[in-house]
Amino acid sequence: MPNQVQYNNQFNKVLVVGLGQLGMPVARYVKERGFDTYGYDISPKAVELAQKTAASEKAVNFGEYDVFILCVYS
């Protein structure tokens, strides 16, 4: 990927919760920075779209991630 920078952090698995207008670009950005990126949304269509466009993987077990990014309406 172009402009991919590897960070030396103690974490690698990032979960983005909420894959809408904000979450999708965030997931893409995190993936471009070299992190293993996973996504979750209540909409199966949003998860499917994120897998195709943001190259994120579907979240299965919430206990296995190092970082959680919440992108939900409040």
H/E order of the elements? EHEHEE
Proportion of residues in helical segments: 25-40%
Mean pLDDT: 88
Number of alpha- plus pi-helical segments: 2
- CA distance, first residue to last residue: 33 Å
How does this model look, in words?
The chain has 74 residues and is α/β, with parallel strands linked by helices. 27% of the residues lie in helices and 22% in strands. It is built from 2 helices and 4 strands, in the order βαβαββ. It has helices at residues 23-32, 44-53, and strands at residues 13-17, 36-40, 57-58, 67-70. α2 links the parallel β2 (36-40) and β3. The chain is globular and about 30 Å long. The termini are far apart. The model has no long low-confidence stretch (mean pLDDT 88).
Notable characteristics:
74 residues, alpha/beta, 4-stranded parallel beta sheet, 4 strands, globular
Structure, briefly:
The chain is α/β, with parallel strands linked by helices. The chain has helices at 23-32, 44-53, and strands at residues 13-17, 36-40, 57-58, 67-70. The chain is globular, with a radius of gyration of 12 Å.
List the helices and strands and how they pair.
Blueprint: E1 13-17, H1 23-32, E2 36-40, H2 44-53, E3 57-58, E4 67-70
Parallel strand pairs: 1-2, 1-4, 2-3
